[in-house]
Amino acid sequence: MGTATDTNERSPLESASDSPGGLHWAALIAGNVALALGPWSVRLADSGPVAAGFWRLALAFPLIWLIARRSGQPIFGVPRRIAWLVALGALAFAFDLASWHIGIERTRLGNATLFGNAGSIVLLFWGLAAARVMPARAEWAAIGLALGGSAILLGRSAEISAGTVVGDLFCIAAGLLYAVYLLCLKDARKGLGSWGLLARVCLVAAPVLLAVALLRGEPVWPQSWGPLIVLALVSQIMGQGLLVFALRAFAPVVIGLALLTQPALAAIYGYVAFGEALGALDILGMAMLGAALAVARARTG
User: What pTM value is reported for the model?
Assistant: First the structure.
């Protein structure tokens, strides 16, 4: 392996396709801001946890389909390789949502957010291995800052106990499945528009989630639609829509760095919504994650 300073080799932070611009960066960050709100809506929903995942996709699908259609993005009739990639990614996403939503019900929200982003670590090191180029010093600094900031927030927010261990394991499994989902969609995104891609994901994943919810004997039909509508609009349409739009422009390393900001966002939401205290270490962890993204932004131009 060479180093990122070699003139004929690409930095691990650079994508092999589009060069990210300001719009891609805004989409990547805003998508993570929206996704970090998901656990609150799942907790507030009065359907079962897996059923909430089904409604997240089912309620979002009509609007996603309409946007894809009006944008001229294909949903059907795509190349077979892309269809299989999307199907694999959609199945991973279905089981990611099922596992994460079950975990949210069985552990603390802080743990769910932290462990649910375990896939970001996978994306970081997958990206390094796939690039076959050792990062430069500035890139190592970005990775170190992100991991260090996340470790601080993990130590401050996570509360491990016998009562939460099952939920924590579900959330870790969800994070790993989410990494599979993003890696599949990153390749599929090259031949399919972001909204057409999301529409296919909903078509494959929603029936799987409904089947799992019914097999678990969960209540499927809610009494209150508000939390589920918020979950569909904010997490699926805004969060996933922006993230999938940004996927093509970024290397997996940068996507992993961005996903690591979600624990920081969850801490900020806790402060704003519930008055949870932010200590000096919390602020330091957030600052380190912000600095990591700033370095990544500078390295990717």
Answer: 0.80
Among 170, 192, 182, 190, which residue's Cα sits nearest to residue 257?
182
Task: Find the distance separating the first CA and the last CA of the chain, reported in whole Å.
Answer: 23
Closest CA to 31 of 283, 290, 262, 270: 262
Sign of the dihedral defined by the CA atoms of residues 244, 194, 130, 137, in that order: negative
pLDDT at 6: 43
Task: Work out whether strand 2-3 and strand 133-134 pair parallel, antiparallel, or are unpaired.
Answer: parallel
257 alpha-carbon distance from chain centroid: 11
Q: Give tens-digit pLDDT for 160-212.
A: 666 678 888 898 899 889 889 988 887 777 667 889 889 999 999 999 999 99
Q: What is the CA radius of gyration of the chain?
A: 19
Is the CB of residue 267 less than 8 Å from the CB of residue 37?
A: no
